[in-house]
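hi support,

uploading two proteins for the ticket. first:
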Amino acid sequence: MASIKEVKGKKGISYQITVVNGKDIHGKQIRAYKTWTPDADMTKWEIKRQLDIVAAEFEKKFLADGEAEDKTTFAEYSEYVMSIKHYAPRTRERNQELLERINNAIGHLKLGEIKAKHLNKFLKSLREEGTNKKTGKGLSEKTILEHRRLINMILEKAIVEDIIHKNPVKQTEKITAPQKKVQVFQVEDLINFLLAIENEQLKWKVATYMLTTLGCRRGELIGLRFRDVSMNNGEVNITKQTIYSATSGIIDGTPTKERVESSNRLPDYVLELLKEYKEWYADYMKNYADWKGESNIEDCHIFIRENGQVMHPDSITDWMDKISKRKGLKHANPHKFRHTYASLLLKRQVDIVSVSTLLSHASTTTTLKFYSHLIGNASDISKEKFDDFFKEFQITKQNQA
């Protein structure tokens, strides 16, 4: 409710109306002031009645448009939002990179001052030559979309906290990042790659075979410990991923937010290879003088550096790049094996729900986004299935004739 204070001045009596509408991110009350001076011939009763009307109208207007009174800048508020949000180290670093560009453009503006025209101008500037310091070109549509999404998230938070009442991002030009076609191995290329690494170090063979048959991400593979794999039935539980962060180094984090908890099983051939590797590993633990890994093999990461500490996630990517070039093979990277895993299952008409579960996607929507083109034409599949059905029907009919 508005508070009213009588102020005596040289020109007579006036009234200061103060309205409070919550607090800013620093805990300071957000206030608005209005001075009203009555006409000289007004009676006390008329002054009181008119003052109540003026105060009520001012309070109503301020509560409706109070965001313009908040002096918090976008840069200040974005720093506050980043401090209360829980992010994985890599995500936090990425957001800080994006915010550096964003704050250079709109960081000085108060939250209530930001309009769609400011954002459209900024997003357009990201396409200009030289914005990407590495290539000297403009940023990709995917990266521009990342900037837009981060601004949107921050301003949506400001709405939740009643600092602004409208998000100008909703009025900006839409950005659609082109969907890249996933890269997969053809069956013969996959076979050639596996044959080409037959005499490579056992660690790399096991890693490649597990990527091929689990469909997991690079960080999830590197995050596996021996206790996560049953040597009896080959069941693999993925609960962590190993990531590299410039600020934190190599750490174990949670899997990506789209992953849901599930398990998969290694085929017998790969399980036997893993058992062979585990025997070598146990012997290596005992005899390597500078061993810095765990003392219990079950607690050890499966894929390690020479001293027993967990492998850098980039190591397997670098190895695959080098082996591909050295052997004259189709280019390989860890994620290509994940896409190939999904491709092989879908081409063998494993249903989308099962594939989504095996990939640990939160929903089939994510799976369809990447692999719908591999599922095949529904009418062709239907015809093929019923052709087979009526062949069986005809045979049964003839046998009963």
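and the second one:
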Amino acid sequence: MSLQELQTMVQELSLPRFTASQIADWLYKKRVDSIEKMTNLSKAAREKLSEDWEVGWTMPAESFRSKDGTVKYLFEVECPIGSDGTLESSVIEAVVIPDEDRKTLCISSQAGCKMGCRFCMTGRGGWHGNLDRAQILSQILSIPEGPELTNVVFMGMGEPLDNYETLSAVLNVMTSEWGFAWSPKRITVSSIGVLPMLKRLLDEHKCHIAISLHNPFPDERLQMMPVQAAFPVQDVVALLKRYDFSGQRRVSFEYTMFAGFNDDRRHADALCRILKGLECRVNMIRFHKIPDFPYETSGAEVMDAFRNRLNAGGITATIRASRGEDIMAACGLLAGKHKAKA
């Protein structure tokens, strides 16, 4: 709940207005997991709250630790799917990535995904419902590393902008003074470029943006990403060029490297052309092999040459280190399966 929603709730319960600020402090600063632990509320107030409300944490069902220190957490959730409110049980995943003085959490916004990108295990599994605010925030609050996190990236399961109203409410909790009070610079939202919601995100929030691009040529991108038909990458880039990214807010483009498909000079030069004039970065990602998919990842020398050509063309490009591949936690591998079912 937002502070305003908490204020409405305590008013309906005939509790003092300041009780809402106390509850927000317990939820988002002290991060308690039960109403009973809100000890500066009177016993009568806590009893009244507990009649109809609870602190809606979802605890991890399982965790897996990679040899590189990455940790993947599995959460069992129930999501409404369809207009009749039917709930579907599913499993979502969140990944903690430690790196020197940083500790980044990659979180999910949906159970599964509708976007159907051919190279992504999440997309292959289909869509099983939108996560609610509590299910998203639980990925931050209920893991042992929660208090130590330096950054959160919405790059887990799902398309965040396909669940925009919930995403927006979660971002408000994370950045408001009554919530986590984080700087928006600590948060990155990744998207394939759902244009109407992308504009709202740009207008309503100040977090970083990461766009899944993967190919600068529309016909080739369409082969990998069906969403190209609805939201062409050239329109996404045109929208981004209307905003200022020279200050604290950044935009980056995710570019998964497929050998012989999108990794030659032609693609590098086309990327330079479409991104010209936009203050941005290209994050090159090694493709992680999945079953029944024809492409392999580009080799190290090819990736180095591609990065160097982008840099020479005026586009800042880096090769992202691959983390957690041995526990199926790397980019494109989150499939929402228990260890016993894997």
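thanks. also noticed: The longest strand covers residues 87-99.
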